[in-house]
């Protein structure tokens, strides 16, 4: 019908406009490390896009930003093809979204027997480290999830990244590189004194620092890491070292044995209501942490269940990120200029 067609054209126009806006913000955030809107505002745009694509599936396209991870790798660095893709996370914004996630997981698994691991969502930059027989071979950014940037020389300058593990295992580990609130303030104060442009937030400062061509920049900035995930893994080498990783929670104990730094605030939870209590706790106490978090990540603990749930084009179905509302709005962001 004519009205339906006109209506669809209007929706398509709005959808294209929304996609263009999001692509532009992705470029500023992932490539330039210089966002011009807050993460909360960005998340609202993305939610609108997802809602519209769900309502009008005939207008959804494979190249939509709702289907893509991160941004393009910078051409100054060599490219690294990840042995296992680095995914993004789907988002929850409130308790009901978390309960809905729990319902979906149990329905897809066909069982109520599910335990979760609840981790802090560190507000930094995703990195991947590849160790061969215990030696650090390569370090990369996430990039578009399939291909990242080779930033090995920069990552080697981070004190908490071991060049050699305590056991000769072969594995790809994932985690977050970040700057503490104190170090972020120190860097910005130094920059202010030198009349240089200020960083908008610790995440952009960490990303900007790690994507510098001169590794000495990283040496001067006390970047840190928390490792929390696995990519490609040679299970035989882990078994030989008597360090099997059979569920999500094992990652933390095994990584510590290997000399990899992990976050201490990790909890194994038997039901989603307990996760909601933890969310409330961290919403009230996040200020007390020495580093920024932008939410919590909830992951199904069992690896076989994770496998059964699988992935969408962009994110695993066995995990969700509960995003906190932004602490600072765009008015604050606009006062600062973003550059390295
Ligand atoms: P995401 O930040 O929503 O979640 C995925 C990322 O979480 C992972 O890649 C990893 O880096 C991080 N993470 C931290 N702790 C983790 C843990 N314990 N376990 C697993 N992952 C952990 O997804 P994204 O694709 O990195 O970025 C999308 C988000 O970035 C948006 O939701 C928005 O907040 C922000 N963004 C903002 C702008 C802007 O203009 N302000 C633009 C693009 C993206």
Automatic annotation (TrEMBL):
It comes from Desulfuribacillus alkaliarsenatis. Transmembrane segments: none annotated. The keyword DNA damage applies. Keywords: Coiled coil, DNA damage, DNA repair, DNA replication, Ligase, Magnesium, Manganese, Metal-binding, NAD, Zinc. The active site is at residue 121. Belongs to the NAD-dependent DNA ligase family. LigA subfamily. It comes from the Bacteria. DNA ligase that catalyzes the formation of phosphodiester linkages between 5'-phosphoryl and 3'-hydroxyl groups in double-stranded DNA using NAD as a coenzyme and as the energy source for the reaction. It is essential for DNA replication and repair of damaged DNA. Residues 1-28 form a coiled coil. GO terms for molecular function: DNA binding; DNA ligase (NAD+) activity; metal ion binding. One of its GO terms (biological process) is DNA replication. NAD(+) binds at residues 39-43, 88-89, 119, 142, 176, 299, 323. This is DNA ligase. One of its GO terms (cellular component) is cytosol.
